[in-house]
Amino acid sequence: MFTRLFIGAALFAALSHAGTVSAQTPPPAQPPAEAAPPKPNDYADPKSWLCRPGQAGSACDVDHTTTVVAADGTLTKETWKANPNAPIDCFYVYPTVSTDPTPNSDMTADPAETNVIKQQFARLASQCRPYAPLYRQITLAGLRRVLAGGGGGTSLVSGVQYDDVRDAFNYYLQHDNRGRGFVLVAHSQGSFILAELIRKEIDGKPIQSRMVSAILLGTVIAVPKGKDVGGSFQHVPLCRAASQTGCVITFASFRSTIPPPANTLFGKVPDPGMEAACTNPAALGGGAGELHAYLDKSGRTITATTPTKPWVVPEQPIETPWVSVPGLLTGKCTSNENASGYLEVTVNGNPSDPRVDDIVGDIGAGATVLANWGLHLVDVNLVMGNLVDIVGQESKAYLSKGGSKSK
Predict the structure, then answer these.
(1) What is the pLDDT of residue 376?
(2) Distance CA 150, CA 116 (A)
(3) Model confidence pLDDT, tens digit, residues 333-373
(4) Does residue 297 contact residue 323 with C-beta atoms inside 8 Å?
(5) What pLDDT sits at residue 157?
(6) Half-sphere exposure (CA, 13 Å, Cβ side) for 31?
(7) How many CB atoms lie under 10 A from the CB of residue 140?
(8) 364-377 burial string, b = 16+ CB within 10 Å, else e?
(9) Helices assigned H by DSSP within 136-280
């Protein structure tokens, strides 16, 4: 519990340092001591969902056309479209992004929530039907309140934020799922919440047979050293092949040039018999592989925008919202003296070619980069293309094993 709380508080401190939230903003007022418990959300109300199939104005209805920038400077356009008849579903819980001034967010979608859907989830709609509930997450301001109080307060996985996600998932199962397989997708605060949901509601229970996979990024999942199951989950193993179902994909990413330091927030667990799980979406079976990233052309991430250098020199206009850079990024799961498992990201920039030689994604800039956070802001962007391919292959494997499309 302490680890989860510390990570939440540190996220706010890190983002404040990076300029996302003013460090001068006073903490919110304490709620009344006898405040009534919050009422459950009505997930029958379409306004309670950011994405839901057939919903007008869905946050997932965005343009994912991409400019592919080759190392030789050649630009080509890659099209994309959603598949409304996808045979499985994806259920997504977003990370800490809310800029609401209250400790927990309201149920109104702001630009922060719609942006994170674009960055981390909507592209998967080519392989699965997308479901993304709004939930009353701990906000950036709420995390500051935790920090100002010396570390006490609500953890990421107990309280209204967890209750909302649980209620939304149960509503989805009862009214929308119709026996279909589903993929759980999350990052950061969302991953902590979905991991708790798996432990309480799915692990070892009949519904587990419908879980095609769980993609829990930017978190820490513990497994016994040298094992694929145990620790955080008792019956849900790590994914070691794209044809494997009922398994977990998880990692936290760090640059090869800035590995996890002694105060790293990811990649380590307190139990000496356990290690932090890492599954590389570019090479689930082990080793290194090319990361198929989809990056915002303007340098925007889940919480900030860092101006990018020209994607190619001489500079040419990029007319699509997304950029792909084949061959620029590779990744492998590794460890060091500070972290037992993390995704090491190597940027293969070549100053002699016309393509850009680096990416954004650090918290901070220059000498003020917070190394203990790694590439947390782009954990999902780095592997989005790999995840799209994996979910497509998992879907086929699930159906070939007798999984139901619908009832």
Answers:
(1) 96
(2) 29
(3) 999 999 999 999 999 999 999 999 999 999 987 678 999 99
(4) yes
(5) 82
(6) 12
(7) 23
(8) beeeebbbbbbbbb
(9) 140-148, 160-172, 189-197
